[in-house]
Amino acid sequence: MAKEKSEWFDWVKALLIAFGLAFIVRMFLFAPIVVDGPSMLPTLHDRDQMIVNKFIYTIKEPERYDIVVFHASAQKDFIKRVIGLPGEHVEVIDNVLYIDGEEVQEPFLTMQKDQMKSYQTLTTDFTLENLPGEHEVVPEGHLLVLGDNRSNSTDSRMLGVISIEEIVGRTNLVYWPFDRIQIVE
Fold it and tell me: Peptidase S26 domain: from which residue to which, for each copy (predicted)?
């Protein structure tokens, strides 16, 4: 009888430890997220399921072109790509991204730009000063983010720059559906 009780207690203890570890991983390290909408097409598709790395920005700073998840509101998280970093001036003129006056390539938009007709616009012209907040440069502690589907994305052009405090983490692993499993660059 004592042996059965000891064995039962060992199982309960093992399950509690497993649930505790799962809770810690989910709360502080990694979390699942589902892409909602077309704003990151063709890179990410609506309903793609991804893993968010929640601790990466505790050990390093966000980098240009990272795909990040951030709190757009108390109820909604958005997935966008980092374009402008603190201290940089950002503008788009004739579908060309300029950072501090220098042309910057956006390799993730190459396919979209190649398929465009000469009269089409992928990204409506803007300068940082024209966006909400009217900043001359991206302020310290903030990022400028854009969706890859520039004609159908609610991003910094409408929201203004995003506080790094609102960043949940970086995501680049699509794990569902199976035919889309990939690491996104």
Answer: 9-176
**24-41 pLDDT tens trace:** 655 556 688 888 999 998
**Is 113 among the residues known to form the active site?**
no
As a whole number of angstroms, the distance between CA 112 and CA 108 comes to 8
The string of pLDDT tens digits covering residues 80-101 is 999 999 999 999 998 899 999 9
Distance CA 13, CA 124 (A): 58
CATH number belonging to the domain at 31-183, selected among 3.40.630.30, 2.10.109.10, 3.90.1150.10, 3.40.50.300: 2.10.109.10
Q: Rounded to whole angstroms, how far apart are CA atoms 115 and 107?
A: 14
CA atoms of 28 and 100, how far apart (whole Å): 35
Tokens of 106: 């956006």
Task: Enter the pTM of the model.
Answer: 0.82
Amino acid at 130: N
The DSSP bridge pattern shows strands 30-34 and 49-53 to be antiparallel
Question: Which of the following is catalytic: 54, 80, 153, 156?
Answer: 80
Q: Which of 3, 13, 39, 151 is catalytic?
A: 39
**73 catalytically annotated:** no
111's tokens: 């396919």
The pLDDT value recorded for residue 67 is 95
